Amino acid sequence: MYNIDLSGKTGLVMGVANARSLAWAIAQPLALSGARLAYSYQGERILPGLQELTAGQDATLIECDVTKDDDLDALFATLAEDYGKIDFVVHALAFAPRVTFERPFIEVSREDWRTAMDVSAYSLVAVSQRAAGIMPDGGSILTLSYLAGERVVPNYNMMGVAKAALEASVRYLAYNLGPSGIRVNALSAGPVRTVAARSISGFGDMFTEAGRSSMMKRNIEASEVGGMALALLCEQLGSGVTGATLYVDAGFHSIGMFVPDGYEL
Ligand code: NAD
Predict the structure, then answer these.
(1) Per the domain annotation, does 263 fall within a domain?
(2) Tell me, what's the pLDDT at 3?
(3) Ranges of residues in the chain whose predicted pLDDT is under 70
(4) Which of 75, 170, 193, 252 has the largest count of CB atoms under 10 Å?
């Protein structure tokens, strides 16, 4: 038997908004494996729910809007003070203004481009800069992406461009931090019904199509993202993987031709 033991390990989980958040699906196996977790959340509206979710854990909850350098500095100063060092970071957050999902990509404004890129891509760089300073023994940083960063998915628009920047950032960060023993990876997840997903026009169709057309003929469960995240975050399993975008999408990304139900290739 291969026991995953994260006791003595400490990590930061960013992006839990509620029990449906992918960040929460990732936090659970980490906590069950014995890791001590700190959670950062966007604003005070989220705090009561997060307190309820994490009630059984010895967790530190810290507010951090990733567009604010002061918040990021304060977050990592608190982590340094409370824990001395950390072993991993889960970056599971993104945002683009609603209009960017509703209007054709060609109409995106400079301001909306900037906002989506800032929250959804630059924040990983800003977090990695600071996290590396408190990972003296190496570590693992994980972010979440989606196939629309590589291919056109209708309505995803600006967020697709931000995911492309995010995945490229993963590679450059992994290159910079590799010599320090810090790994940086992305999981590209298939559609899961979360608050962020619901803000995407036509998400229901994306969800149905992914379930119908994936190799496994089903959608993924959030817990499957959690399982793969655990592997990448823990040195026992993930120590050789960095600069990668791995898919948790029941094989959807590898399909080259979508065929009607019942059609045999
Ligand atoms: P979610 O709504 O549960 O989580 C999004 C999180 O982003 C929230 O906690 C929100 O507070 C946070 N956030 C937004 N702006 C922020 C800011 N300025 N500062 C700090 N935090 C901020 O939705 P989710 O689907 O769990 O999203 C998590 C990640 O997973 C995102 O990167 C998303 O693009 C990615 N993802 C989601 C799916 C899906 O289908 N749900 C698929 C692939 C990738």
Answers:
(1) no
(2) 86
(3) 1, 264-265
(4) 170
Residue 126 inside a domain? The answer is yes
The closest-lying atom of ligand 1 relative to the alpha carbon of residue 22 is 26
Contact assessment for residue 14 and residue 90, using Cβ atoms and an 8 Å cutoff: yes
Q: How many domains does the chain have?
A: 1
The three-point CA angle 163-164-166 to 5° equals 60
Q: Rounded to two decimals, what is the model's pTM?
A: 0.97
Nearest alpha carbon, ligand 1 atom 19:
65
Instruction: Look at ligand 1, atom 13, and give the residue with the nearest C-alpha.
Output: 93
Say how far apart CA 259 and CA 103 lie, in whole Å.
Answer: 28
Question: Is 156 a known active-site residue?
Answer: yes
Residues near ligand 1 (Cβ within 6 A): 15-17, 21-23, 42, 65-67, 92-95, 119, 144-146, 189, 191-192, 194-197
Residue 233 domain-assigned (yes or no): yes
